Amino acid sequence: MRTKHLLLFFAVLVTGGFTALNTVTSDGDHEFASSKIAADKSMSVIPQKTAKGFEFDPLQLTDIRNELVNAVDPLEGQLNWLQQGPINVGGRTRALIIDRENPHILYAGSVAGGIYKSETNGQYWVPVETNYHASVLSVTSLAQSEDGTVYYATGDVFDSLLITKQGVSTFAGAGLFKMDENGVFQQVDATKPTDNEAFFGVTEIAIASNSQMYLSTWKGLYYTSDAGGSFSLVTSVPEEYITDVQVNSNGDVVTATQGKVYKGTVGGTFTRVSGSQEGQIEGGGRRYEFSYAPSNPDYVYAIAAAGRDTVINGNDTAVYRAGKLMGVYKSTDAGSTWTKIAIGGSDEFSVLSRELPDPDALSKIWDEPQKGIGSMMIQVDDEDADYVYVAGVDLWAGYKPAGVEQFQWVRKTYNNYSKISPLYLTANIHVMAQHPENDKAFIGCDGGIYRFEEGYGTVAMNNYYSTGLFYDLSYGPSGEYLAGAQDNGMFYNDYSGPGSQSLFAREVKKEEDFGIEENGMGSVISQLSPRIIFYNHGKSELRRSLDIGESIKEFWSPTLIKQVGGWDQIWNNGFDFYETNDYTYSYDINYQKFYDTVPADTTIIIQSQNIFGAPIEYYVENTIMPDSIMPFHDPYKSFFAVSLEGAVWLTAHSSNDILDSLDWVPPFIATRYYDTIDDPKSVQVTNVELADDGGHMFFTLVSFLENDQIKTEIFRMDSLQVLIKPELYSIIGGRVYPTPDMWDNLQKLGEVGNIEVTSLVLDPNNNANLFVTLADYSYTDKVYYCANANTTVNDDFATNFSSIQGDLPRVPVFDGIVNASPSSNTPDNQLILGTEVGVWITDDFTVGSPTWRYDSKAGVGNLGPVPIMTIKQQVNDPADFPLVENQGVLYVATWGKGIFVDSTYFVENKNDIATDDNKAYSSNGGVSINVYPNHVHDNFNVRFNLAQDGNATLRMYDLSGRVLIQEELGSFTAGSHIYEVNSSELEFGVYFVEVMSGDKKDATRVIKR
Question: For a disulfide at 130, which of 178, 185, 500, 655, Cβ 3.0-4.6 Å?
């Protein structure tokens, strides 16, 4: 596929530590790159410090998986989840192939969203069904045999199986899957992990023939000679973590453990070919990847990332940080002997590490984890056996000019360029598939799928490849959302695009933002002034915009910046937001200047100074003269609380335009509370939850102990309306400290050890009810309930909390909500959980051992068994928040499938019913309907209420009265029901939906975009 004419703008021959083996060139003029450096992040220590503690016990995981197999009913569920995109945001993609028989067909696999297929050369994608629902479909490899059979492997163990909400989770797999004659993937029975734990993590598939195949796993190399009917362990390779296996057309095989490389033949034994002797490939690597040359099967290349230990480099000793590039290697005898063609450790050849534009910050690169552990790729050109691509952070190409022994290296993409640049490619590159009929290739990376062509650059190919890894989302009062995705940034969607583009989302970013470290995380949309948004950006900034992202600023105060070490000290930290238009504790007195005469006995609208842009009706008793400055009571108030290192910071002016020095105060600082703590980074405040009365705050404090142990304490802080007062704080040496009597308002509720507390869930119906969710692969119960959280004075977890695990499988639980919808069909004590495998619900959390049901219907386009990192519900009542139009609607942010909503518990805004211009008519007393979401696109839900039992008919017609859809819905009992309408064939425009039962009917307007 390579264009034979290379565009080489400049070349540098580097000597010294970076020898003449490496000649570096650039494939384009350098664009301006941001000089702003993402400093060490306060939360980044969590995955590093707790990784060992969170690795799982395979025996316990096996039992948990069996629980899921027995409990999950893929057809079960009362909720109707609808995918809301963003359909232009792809996620981490480790697997990608082009069909052998039809090169217009591509298959791609994401680490949590399953398999997608394109029949349009990557222009559009559709999900492919897998008949398995008991685990995340974490795809690591795709392969196709000569007879056209497609296989995929699962189990993303490249970053270790770290189950966390604060860092990047990876998930255990379910073995090997094979496409049947109907195009549906079925689990290969011989690779069920519940029978052999090695198949929880399969890193690569290598197919030698229709019947012969190798699987590299996290516990050894496996081989089949009967097309997967049975697999046997290859005993001549250690039963260790196998990072890769590759086979050439002659039957040669190369594979590697963490530290050793082996060469063999298909079905035969293997010999170690790594070490420190001449002709051997260097040993000691943490990860190896291989690629045979399609045009010459004797040529094979390797790339290696260093382990933590000393690596032997010839006669010298070189110490590499884990994941840093050790080198690139070449063999011309199918892997028996090797030569090194590129040396790692250079700032210029930064394949597996970030290139920082600030020279003063270059040393920081080596203080951060290098990318080779989780992101590394090598691919030989399909026509030229002396041309090879390598990648990790960026894509590079190496080639050997005629008559020259050393390889030259050309950088092809830049992750820190603007996303509109043809040289941009999202960092963390995993796979490349070269098109057999042209010079294009497809690349899988953390930004989804890109098409690459030499001399032309890259183009994103993510239309309908909705596999974004979303940490969090927030909803607006009209159903708009703001969501943050790993490696992709923040995305806002108000459904204003035409047609299917209504599911495209707009990225929210500052002009100087570039691709590097663009992780989107938590966010908030104000319900009282929805142009105000807050979000946590991957550059470790907490940002605010007063105009939905048109202008964006950090909103720290000067003292807070100094105290925590800069504006960039936040990384997926816990934060929460409280706002009200009737603050019960006290009204602030603010001042308004009037430039014109205002007559007496009139009502005017002035803007709140507490929530920017919020209106206040002000009755003028006496005439106001020009240039008068008048006091007025401001009923609005907002609190914003955020965890920074071992402290909670709070402001009551988060929605104002200006923040002064004492507008941020720390009611809790761990180093002051526990005066024995010397290192503030040894403790972290994680979850923060504000009660909806504005008076209480709950949070968790994680302490990192010796031997990779942790403990998590749960606290309640009372009287926030008092603690927010600046006079309770003192500034010492430019730092803000609380007075000691602040601890009178602090109550410990208990502690747990060696497991992550993923969320604190407050019941909006009753703030006495507090839930704690946990995540790991162990026998530990994952959901606990406290019935007196706002009043207890006991500090013992076992006394305050009781398990409500019931029959819920012991999977990781990431979030939850108590259903607060006033809908007539809402159970009184319903708890809805977001877990590793979708949504689970109990209708009564107060019973001793609740019954749980799975509510993530499987199938193409449905929610299915995907990790739910965040679940939220619009709980605000339009009576108090007059802009709210989506009360009761559920929202989830998934790690692999984007955003979903459910309107089962949607309640129409009663304030709008009398004047609702959506209503066509209503025959009072028999039928009532509403539609959500509205605006609609390919499908939508109609919820209808029947006053009595009867048959129901649905019609959809245009403005001329022409009936376009008519469906007999069947017989229903009195009450609320939901029906999903397929509107994909309708043109854009305005329509009416009508439901009839007997002589009663109701209709409402919908807009198709």
Answer: 185
